[in-house]
# Entry
Amino acid sequence: MWAVFELQWVRLKRNPFLVLSFLGLTFVFVFLLAGSQADQKMTVHTFTDQLSEPQMAEWLDLLNDSDTLTFQQSDREDVVDLIEAGRISFGLHVDEEQFHYLVGHQSHYQIAVDQHVQRVFQETLRIRQVAEQTGITDIQGRVEEALEQPLMSIDVDALKGDASQADAERFHVVIGMTLYFAIYTILITISSIIIQKRDGTWNRLILSPVKKTKIYLGHLFYCFLIGFLQIVVSFALFHYLLGYDFGDQFGAIVLVLIVYVFSIVALGMFLMGLIQSPQQLDAVNPIVATGMAMLGGAFWPIDLISNQMMIALSRVMPIFHGMEGLKGAILFDQGITELLQPLSILLLMGVLFMGIGINLMERDTKI
Amino acid sequence: MLEVEGLKKKFKTNVAVNEVNLYLDKGESVGLLGPNGAGKSTTISMISTLIKPTAGKVRYQGKNILKDPNSIRPILGVVPQEIALYELLSAYENVKFFGKIYGLKGKQLEQKIDQVLELVGLQDRKKDLVKTYSGGMKRRINIAVALLHEPEILIMDEPTVGIDPQSRSYILDMVRKLNQEKGMTVLYTSHYMEEVERLCDRVYIMDHGQIIASGTKEELKSILSSEETVLIEVDQTSSAMLDALNELTAIQQVTEAPKGYKLIVSKGANVLADVFSLAETMDIKITSAHVEVPTLEDVFLHLTGRKLRD
Ligand SMILES: Nc1ncnc2c1ncn2[C@@H]1O[C@H](COP(=O)(O)OP(=O)(O)OP(=O)(O)O)[C@@H](O)[C@H]1O
Ligand SMILES: [Mg+2]
# Structure
């Protein structure tokens, strides 16, 4: 078995291009998708006619307490220029106790911006009013202090813990893309069995004293490791290069990955059993990988879909359970016991696919 | 040592091999001869336990190998018709890998690798990737891989297809040496008559999935012993001569040949005297005449009415 296993690495070393390119693609896609989402934090050009520097800075500070908006100080002339050039649709004009917009053309962003700005203004002005009436200058600080040490607190936990929406989206892309491209790598790696069956080297293996189960194990273990490593390496790169925080549930993440990769390897065996000619592989691999990733919700959250059939379909895709497991561990800090459901479903799928797959593969050659 | 009995393989409706019986004795070199699609490869695959027969038995030392394939696999060396090598690996790495899975290790493995690479004459190119090899070199490595574990029985499926005459001659000499010096039993499949004539003691002729003749080369040729082929060359051919030759009762068949005629005659009939006197009366000079010894090609032609290769 180890000779067979070792051989696969030598072959990979001679032709690493394909596997490396899938790792590369994972990055490209995450950059494109996650990158563009990060850019959606909108910049609002803000200027003033009357306020002093520190006053303006205070307003900007208050306004910038937002996940989605950035308020950036500008001059009136600059804003007018930008609007005239069509680069921005509006600018925010802030003065003592009032604000308004300099509008080039209507934009739906303006509504969102306006809501935010109104809220900030109302709150701040109310606090100032109270401060004037009571003579307490540091109302803001006191309110915050009081909130930090509340007499009575009401915890409002979101159903699934504490991940912010933006975090969830960022990770959805990273996890989805990584798992998606891992399917590719695994299917392509496993198709080497079919190719060897065609070129006759498989027969040579069969004729050797090495048991057939060990020949399969050598190949499958290699496929498993390649898939696993690809995911681990890509997560590691996301962590160290792009600062993604994968949380503390290291054991749970690894375990989910193990059963996920196992289920995909098994799925690969099943597919190889169905197809018998290597020519079909080139068509089947992308269809299966992409189809599964779409249906399984790797590209967009399955929560967005309301069609019952689509939802049911997503549940039979290993990638769906892989994503659930990883999101649970990474975003919601769930441990192994809390992830038993996706773990056991993936394991079950793996065992089923593997069993059927091997039987299909050997249906002609049973001897 | 190895017996095949009533072997049959059906692919859906196509009967590729039908009721084949054959045997191999220890140390023999046996040819399996037949045109494209005769069922040679299918027969060999069944003997080497790679595909399951529809019916029939293969016995090695009295034991049915279909029940226990592992009783024969380790002593078989199979050279497949298609090159079965890892193209991205060097010759050395290919041979080494297949040696390893046969349980060879360390010094012994290195020694064996040296030996077979020497034998197939590829020592100097052993570090090159197989994909950079010529057809003939690939063929030779294809054989080397099957020899590493010193099999008792070497089964070769058209090992010389599509290569230059030198490589071919090299391979044939090599197989002959293995058979005669190492006592390896050889089952050699081919549709080249000359190869089988040169290499094999006994021959099976196969066509349409069936063995249509078998025996030693001499036995097979004696199928043709009731007839002889006489080739004559003349200084000028004429249709009158052709007609006159056809008139002679001792001659069964006359066909035109380059610069003369090909005569099929009953064995023992002394036609040459008649032919010479006929030529003299027609004022034609016979420049050469000789009696041909039949080849296996003729045997095949006789048995099937077709040429072995078209
Ligand atoms: N896997 C298969 N499925 C269906 N038919 C097959 C299969 N393998 C062989 N055959 C058919 O069986 C017949 C015999 O094929 P085989 O390969 O044994 O011939 P062969 O004597 O080796 O010919 P060649 O000299 O061309 O190698 C052919 O008609 C072929 O089409
Ligand atoms: Mg053949």
Chain B touches chain A at residues 48-52, 66, 69-70, 73-74, 76, 78, 80, 82-86, 88-89, 93, 97-98, 100-103, 129, 145 (CB under 8 Å). The CA atoms of residues 23 and 132 of chain B lie 39 Å apart. The mean pLDDT of chain B is 87.
